[in-house]
Design brief:
single chain; mainly beta; Immunoglobulin-like; Protocatechuate 3,4-Dioxygenase, subunit A; 5 domains; 5-stranded mixed beta sheet; 5% helix; globular
């Protein structure tokens, strides 16, 4: 009961804080609305005052603008332990460019060609040495080609490396060449508005000026190739951003700040001479349309799609007008010669407007830029409610777009281990029955996760039937909360969510009082393979980022004996356990 009383108070504090934040972060001009007379002010944004909009709900689907960061990797088939297969003991060393061993690095062996189904994971000791078991989690067919394999590694500070493909003999053990991990570059900085204030949530994109060595460990096979490097990060609530472990090279930076502005040539960083750099990036509010989406009570509405639509036909990109870039992505670099040297464009490209869209932030703010001078309309749709504002022009004080909120659900997102509010996450209102979170639902760290002061989320005008709220953020298993059947006018404020942190898991596998060293380990959920690894020379298993759940662990010994045990992984950031197999 006490918790329910605290939530409305937190919501009031959030509203006050959002209002103060808007007052400080805006340009100083008060929001403007379409001029009306008498009592027409409250109706100025209603669709009934205009021609029928005939809006397509898909155009106001947040997932079409901000892709879902949660992906399911559930295997289609149940796990069948291989009765026979290749077991390969792999050893080697992970070192710096100066030959110094790197401790506690995660090392992966990936088989290729004839060994394409083979995989093994291990960790380096204090001297950078490792020994791991590579095995196949399914019956291996007689693949064509010769036996090859390669190493990849990730250090504790985030550096990654991929070795060359190496021929592997038919022996049961192989020693691989040293895997050299190069130092990467770090680029940090802060995004500021043209008034010198922080720009939270700005999207910063870095592009290399030419081909650099790009290493990726995503996918079944790690790769290393020379190509252009492009990466994006989102600035935090103070406008700060960080790129870690970038390839050495020269970079150009572009910033899209939504409400706060845009800059196609925000800055340059030369990371060839120094391994780190700090940049202060400034946004421009020229050729810009921005404002705030509010409800009928004057409170900001977050997480809604706002569309900027031209009242006239956009110029044809084939007409030869130099200030129009028909590409959907502004590119701040262009090639000067065959060696792909790059430079900034002299001015930000101005793209035609024909229904450009964005999502409002936690303070209800939205912005579009740069856009050509023209007459525009601002449109939003949440549930069955619509808002429409005409006579919109560039380089004006903030517009206020108002929408009717008839129903809402809200709550606080917390860390399940500490109980503290989490303020950076993605939330989505869905329609569903009884969704279940499984270890196969993985949260991508490349998604966009908005800042929510105090950990509070608000879903406006959700569907009135089977409403489900899903919260996700990197480092945690996603979570669902069911709002159930709603009635129009409901304002539920008690739908709190607890996110369970992923566990850095280690456990000993023991059979008849003896630890089992260098044995394959399969962790199953719903009889499907969730994690595959192996024990080390001391019979210890380490698995990073394990979703809290109960797993069946299976081990198949070299003589074909199958052992099994139950492992309960807690909702903690780390756990050290012992598993007795039978």
């Amino acid at each position: 009961m006490g918790q329910k009383l605290l939530v409305p108070a937190a919501a009031v504090l959030l509203a006050i804080g959002a209002g103060v934040a808007i007052w400080f972060l805006m340009s100083g001009d008060s929001p403007r609305t379409t001029p009306v007379s008498g009592n027409e002010q409250a109706d100025s944004n209603r669709p009934g005052d205009h021609e029928p909009l005939q809006l397509n709900p898909a155009d106001f689907d947040v997932s079409r603008i901000e892709p879902d960061p949660v992906a399911s990797e559930r295997p289609a088939q149940t796990f069948v332990p291989p009765k026979s297969g290749i077991r390969l003991v792999v050893s080697g060393r992970v070192v710096t460019e100066g030959g110094v061993g790197i401790a506690d690095s995660e090392v992966t062996f990936t088989g290729e060609q004839k060994l394409r189904d083979l995989r093994g994971v291990g960790y380096t000791d204090a001297g950078g040495n490792f020994t791991l078991l590579a095995w196949a989690s399914r019956e291996t067919a007689n693949a064509a080609g010769d036996p090859y394999g390669r190493l990849s590694a990730r250090t504790q500070d985030g550096r990654i490396a991929v070795g060359e493909s190496v021929a592997v003999s038919g022996d049961p053990a192989v020693t691989m060449p040293d895997l050299v991990v190069k130092e990467g570059a770090t680029l940090t900085g802060q995004v500021l508005t043209d008034a010198g204030l922080p720009a939270p949530g700005a999207l910063v994109t870095a592009r290399s000026a030419g081909p650099v060595e790009v290493i990726t460990l995503r996918g079944r096979t790690p790769t290393s190739a020379r190509r252009q490097y492009v990466s994006s990060v989102t600035a935090d609530e103070s406008g700060r951003f960080e790129f870690r472990q970038m390839p050495i090279g020269r970079y150009a930076l572009q910033v899209e700040g939504g409400y706060f502005g845009y800059s196609a040539r925000a800055g340059e960083a030369d990371l060839t001479a120094a391994p780190s750099a700090w940049l202060e990036l400034r946004l421009s509010a020229e050729q810009h349309v921005r404002g705030v989406l509010k409800d009928q009570a004057g409170q900001p509405v977050a997480g809604a799609v706002v569309q900027l639509k031209s009242a006239q036909k956009a110029p044809d990109s084939s007409s030869g007008e130099s200030n129009i870039n028909a590409s959907s992505e502004a590119t701040p670099l262009e090639s000067n010669d065959r060696r792909s040297r790059r430079r900034f464009e002299d001015a930000a490209p101005i793209r035609p407007v024909n229904g450009r869209r964005c999502v409002t932030d936690s303070a209800g703010r939205f912005g579009f830029g740069p856009v050509p001078d023209a007459d525009y309309s601002l449109i939003s749709k949440i549930g069955d409610q619509e808002a429409h504002l005409d006579d919109v022009k560039t380089n004006q004080p903030d517009y206020e777009l108002q929408i009717q909120i008839t129903t809402s659900v809200s709550g606080i997102v917390r860390d399940a281990e500490t109980g503290k509010p989490l303020e950076v996450y993605d939330f989505r209102a869905m329609i569903g029955g009884n969704p279940v979170v499984t270890p196969f639902d993985r949260v991508s760290d490349t998604g966009k996760f908005e800042y929510h002061p105090g950990g509070i989320y608000v879903a406006a005008n959700p569907t009135l039937r089977d409403t489900i709220i899903r919260i996700s953020t990197p480092g945690y298993a996603p979570a669902f909360v069911a709002a159930g059947e709603l009635r129009e006018g409901d304002a539920r404020r008690d739908l709190d969510v607890s996110l369970k942190p992923l566990c850095q898991l280690s456990f000993d596998i023991v059979h008849e009082g003896k630890k089992l060293d260098l044995e394959p380990v399969a962790m199953l959920f719903d009889n499907r393979l969730a994690y595959e690894t192996s024990s080390d020379e001391l019979g210890r298993v380490r698995v990073p980022d394990v979703a809290p759940a109960s797993y069946v662990v299976k081990v198949v010994l070299a003589d074909g004996t199958q052992l099994e045990g139950i492992l309960d992984v807690p909702a903690r950031r780390s756990a050290s356990l012992e598993l007795k197999l039978s």
